[in-house]
Specification:
heterodimer, A: 238 residues, alpha/beta, Rossmann fold, nine-stranded mixed β-sheet, two-stranded antiparallel ribbon, 5 helices, globular, B: 89 residues, alpha+beta, Mth169, Chain: A, three-stranded antiparallel β-sheet, 42% helix, elongated
Chain lengths: 238, 89
């Protein structure tokens, strides 16, 4: 299968995502500049982490005006799988592809550390290879990851099973101590109603090889690979 | 014509920066300051025929870009003096 990784000015996890897809998973992957207007026939799109457009105004607020985003919106509306990681999640929120908004972390600190998240839903294109309630040890690196939505929206997200990832303790409990940023209901990631657009603050692409401390993040991209049934998807984790 | 747009987090949204600034002020002895909300301030120079027009354009700009309606609200002031000077010109 083929991944497109969008590169905004200020993206800094684009190559990590490209590496995970192409080198670790052996899939086709292409970096697509934000001023491009074509996703080059990709099967899945990744909006990577970083600081698109310098986080000017608000995180993700300017990126939605990038020409490629019109194409990403069309792709998503047609059911194409879109994964927003960290800043990519913030871009999806500002672009209206996912509900809610990000606030400064409760602690005001930029948090850069491994956290544990629980996979809450396994019927999205980026979690279908995971087992229900699977725990993932993956890193976060953000200053504005405090997910907020009005109470009625949060209630709807929970009712529709749109909360895909939740911050939990190493034992799998969604406690306040396990919440690194103050996100409502320990929400680490969500999907849209159609379930093809997924956003999360933690960085699965930075946890795809044991050499960097964890390979737990690989399951997200593996899910997309399984969905598109490409041969050559067997992985030996290094 | 100059429009000033003040964007702040909605009262229902926790403002960790404002709270921290408030605590810092208390440390400085300003215990009479009971609450701080931090926000953003924009000055828009608008080529508009009337104060109403300028206000409408600034409100659209705030709705579509300057504020995120999920978490923020805004207030607009259009500079009357500058508006009158503009009208005389």
């Amino acid at each position: 299968m083929k991944f497109a990784v969008v590169v905004f000015p200020g993206s800094n996890c684009d190559h990590d995502a490209h590496y995970a897809a192409s080198q670790v998973l052996g899939q086709e992957a292409e970096l697509v500049w934000h001023k491009d207007t074509s996703l080059r026939g990709a099967d899945a799109v990744i909006l990577p982490g970083g600081f698109a457009h310098g986080d000017y105004l608000r995180t993700g607020a300017i990126a939605r005006f990038s020409p490629i985003m019109q194409e990403v919106k069309r792709f998503a509306a047609a059911g194409g799988p879109v994964l927003g990681i960290c800043n990519g999640f913030q871009v999806l929120l500002e672009a209206g592809l996912l509900p809610g908004a990000m606030l400064r972390n409760r602690s005001l600190h930029f948090r850069c550390e491994f956290v544990h998240v629980r996979v809450e839903q396994v019927d999205t294109p980026f979690t279908l290879a995971a087992s229900p309630s699977q725990l993932l040890k993956i890193p976060i690196a953000h200053g504005e990851g405090n997910y907020f939505a009005p109470p009625d929206v949060v209630e709807r997200l929970e009712r529709n099973r749109q909360v895909v990832f939740r911050y939990v303790t190493p034992a799998g409990e969604p406690t306040d101590e396990a919440n690194p940023n103050g996100s409502v209901n320990n929400i680490a990631g969500i999907c849209n109603e159609a379930r093809n657009v997924v956003g999360l603050m933690p960085h699965p692409e930075r946890a795809c090889e044991l050499a960097v401390g964890s390979a737990d993040g690989l399951v997200l991209l593996q899910s997309a690979v399984r969905r598109f049934g490409t041969a050559g998807a067997t992985v030996s984790v290094r | 014509m100059r429009a000033r747009v003040f964007v702040t987090l909605k009262p229902s949204v926790f403002d960790p920066q404002g709270t921290t600034v408030g605590e810092a002020l208390h440390t400085l002895g300003y215990t009479s300051v009971t609450d701080v909300r931090q926000g953003k301030y924009f000055e828009l120079e608008i080529d508009a025929a009337s104060v109403d027009d300028a206000t409408r354009i600034a409100a659209e700009a705030a709705d579509k870009l300057l504020a995120n309606p999920v978490i923020e609200s805004y207030r607009i002031e259009v500079d009357q003096a500058a508006a009158l000077a503009g009208a005389k010109r």
